[in-house]
Amino acid sequence: MKTIDEEIWDYLDGGLTADQKREIAAKINSDPAYQQVYTELQEIQQLMKGAELEEPSMSFTRNVMDQVSLEIAPIALKTKVSKTIIYSIAAFFLLSIMAIMVYTIANSTLSDESFKVPDLKLPVNTQEFITPTSIRIFFFVDIVLALIYLDSFLRRKKA
Amino acid sequence: MQEQQTDYALITAVLEGNTAVYADLVKRHQRFVFTMAMRFAKNREDAEEIAQDCFVKAYKALGTFQHTSKFSTWLYTIAYTTAMTFLRKKKLSTLSLNDDENTVQIENHISDYNANGIEKKSGYAYLSQAIELLLPDDAMIITLFYMGEQSLEEIAQTMHMESKTIKVKLHRARTRLKEKLQYLLKDEVKELI
């Protein structure tokens, strides 16, 4: 439910439909309460529209230009990448990957039981390094890094 | 004829290396940016600092201006962000009388103001005083809407809010402004008596 003030402000802003305008205009003409609010708000609106802007000091422009002269001159970003080009490249790669996958699946014999995943022979024995202690160290370092990041993120937000 | 050039023409000239033309852009928008800064800073020295900082930032970022909105809207966004950063840093106390808990019982003296025939010039002085009593965001919305002739969508862009939120905030800001004006005029009438 709109207050009289809200109705009148909407009317003065001019954003109402013709029917709504007629309705409010009729209320203003017939209802003394609406008439009084209309007179007040119209007066305030005229004041606000006619109010003058503040004037900075005489040396304002010169001060700005003095500061600006110390900066590197701006240049237009000529490498504006069109989104269409990005989407086209993405579509090309997606289609290529899908085509390779379809071709591979179509030419593979999934029922072949002789297929074995090849063994990865590294020069070091990975089992020696993956121990419960090393896993704990790994998680500990991760948690410390996460906390450092969270701290810097919150500091940035606070600033 | 330089004055008649559009903002876009001036920006293009600056980006092409004629950096002195930036002074024309500054002259064209400095009063409004300064007025915006005054809504936050409350004193001229700080407002000048904010406004100057805004124009320097705008200069540095001029190459990224996309021409998808009016230059003024883009500039006011920088001014608003600069002013907000300034306010956070300085932690300025706002002299708003707007505490809902301490709502002043206000009599309607707008009509008295008309009847007493106080000059229009005084009306502007009261308006200026009333705007100073508003919260910075309320003062900013009113300034952008009436003095900057920005649409609700443009104000929303400047203040990083939804246009529906801006519409509600504008209504509230105007109601508060009316209260402040009535409060100030009540004091004026008392003084006259």
Any overview of this molecule?
The complex is a heterodimer of chains A (159) and B (193). By secondary structure, chain A is mostly helical. Chain A is built from 7 helices and no strands. Chain A has helices at residues 4-13, 18-30, 32-50, 60-68, 83-107, 126-129, 132-158. Chain A is elongated and about 95 Å long. Chain B has 193 residues and is an all-alpha fold. Chain B is built from 9 helices and no strands. Chain B has helices at 7-15, 22-41, 44-60, 71-90, 110-115, 120-133, 136-147, 152-158, 163-192. The longest helix of chain B has 30 residues, at 163-192. Chain B is globular, with a radius of gyration of 19 Å. The A-B interface holds A 5-6, 9, 36, 39-41, 43-45, 47-57, 60-61, 63-65, 67-69, 71-77 and B 14-15, 17, 19-20, 22-23, 26-27, 30-32, 34-35, 38, 44, 47-48, 51-52, 55-56, 59-64, 108, 110-111, 113-114, 120, 123-124, 127-128, 142, 146-147, 171, 174-175, 177-178, 181.
